[in-house]
Amino acid sequence: MSEDEDFLRSYDPGAFPPFGVTVDMVLLTVRDGAFSVLLVERDTHPYRGKLALPGGFVAADEDLDSAAVRRLERETGVRRTGAHVEQLGAYGAPDRDPRMRVVSVAYLVFAPDLPAPVPGERTRSVAWVPVSEVNGDALAFDHGQVLAAGIERARAKLEYTPLAAAFVGESFTVADLRHVYEAVWGGALDPRNFHRKVTGTPGFLVPVGRPAPVGPEGGRPAALFKLGDATSLRPAMLRPGASVPTA
């Protein structure tokens, strides 16, 4: 008998405590000019009636990324190709879930102006909520901690990567992009300085070659751009009040 066969014969699943793995989704977008997160109102225990991040248990036959994509599509109807998705971190405090020991792998999602969501199973309601109005201490589980980490990751990524474009459509104006930075960072930016920075950063923006439609107020049409091939921004787009790191 091989060592593996001997192990299988002696292995007793009941000798180990119950253990679960979940995925939690920090879904961020900009709606009506506000940096917003998707929250659900739970309709089951524990924390029934509490607001929480969308998510759930990983099925026995799926990996973490597949579970995250399944939740993304179920909660928002957005396909994986229409959003930026990345792992945010793992959360495993022994008492984070009163049902049993549960480790959650959190995912961060950026997507442009996502539609109004429809409540899924085991949720009373679901809504986009401006992050400035969320009381993290009132969220279920440790989701306040998860959300805070997601917000900070998003704000930092806008400094050093071109991911601000994940909050706008395929083509956009410089003003559209500036409104994303202002919403995520929570402050106004000088339009001229911003235009000079983003158009002068190599590989960030590429002209589409046509202007944006003129709105009802008229005026000179703005140029349209699309995301270039840059994977990092040099120099960085630092947040107001941030200092440039020194060597």
Quick summary:
The protein is 25% helix and 26% strand. It has 247 residues and is of the alpha+beta class. The mean pLDDT is 87.
Structural features, described:
The chain has 247 residues and is an alpha+beta fold. The protein folds into 2 domains: 14-157, Nucleoside Triphosphate Pyrophosphohydrolase (Alpha-Beta Complex), CATH 3.90.79; 161-227, Arc Repressor Mutant, subunit A (Orthogonal Bundle), CATH 1.10.10. The chain has helices at 3-10, 64-76, 143-160, 174-185, 191-200, and strands at residues 19-31, 34-42, 51-52, 55-57, 84-91, 101-110, 123-130, 205-211, 223-227. The strands form 2 sheets. Strands 1, 2, 3, 4, 5, 6 and 7 form a 7-stranded mixed beta sheet that branches. A two-stranded antiparallel ribbon has the order 8-9. The radius of gyration is 22 Å and the shape is elongated. The model has no long low-confidence stretch (mean pLDDT 87).
